[in-house]
Design brief:
The chain is α+β, with helices and mostly antiparallel strands. The protein has two helices and eleven strands; from the N terminus they run αβββββββββββα.
Length: 189
């Protein structure tokens, strides 16, 4: 009888030891998993200077943005970005993200190369860099831009209608006024 009692006690102790080991292992694994969850950081979005146009562009087109910097004060094809725009009757954000190391001193926007483009509605222009931004709503675009010769601007509806006219090159553009440089400086400082 004593050996059976000793055997039972020994089994109880082994069971308790095994259960304790299992609980310790589960706790240790749980803690380790918590740490890995805390250590995982979401990928940070690169901080770029972004220009966003909210527009209605009815037909497919390709928009281009030119930027100048300290080394190149004139607009140059080498310092420009093209962006395809899918035609839609709905307003859409057209976002130009300049390369990470670029801080512009000025901007020019070319509104497409589709000579058959119809009237486009400009709802909003926005520049942003890190947590700062500058915005112009519809008709206020004239505050910082001159409408190019190949665009007819209807201030009442904020529509830009391309018109090549007699020009040999189709180039509907928004050319910056001097005060745009000041607004860029405010958000990059």
């Amino acid at each position: 009888k004593k050996s059976i009692i000793l055997l039972k006690n020994n089994l109880k102790m082994k069971s308790k030891f095994i259960i304790a080991c299992l609980l310790f292992t589960v706790t240790l694994i749980s803690c380790k998993e918590e740490k890995t969850v805390e250590e995982v950081k979401p990928d940070e979005k690169p901080k770029t200077f972004d220009v966003t146009l909210n527009m209605v562009v009815n037909q497919d087109d390709n928009f281009q943005i030119f930027y100048t910097d300290e080394s190149t004060p004139e607009f140059d094809e080498k310092k420009s970005l093209w962006l395809p725009v899918k035609g839609s009757p709905n307003a859409q954000d057209i976002v130009f993200s300049l390369p990470e190391d670029v801080i512009p001193s000025n901007l020019r926007i070319d509104l497409g190369n589709n000579e058959k483009q119809v009237a486009m509605k400009l709802n909003n222009f926005k520049m942003s860099y890190f947590d700062k931004s500058y915005e112009l709503k519809d008709t206020l675009i004239l505050k910082n831009f001159v409408i190019g010769d190949q665009l007819k601007y209807d201030k009442a509806t904020s529509t830009l209608t391309p018109n090549k006219g007699t020009a040999s090159i189709y180039d509907p553009l928004l050319f910056p006024q001097d005060n745009l440089k000041e607004e860029i400086e405010k958000i990059v400082k």
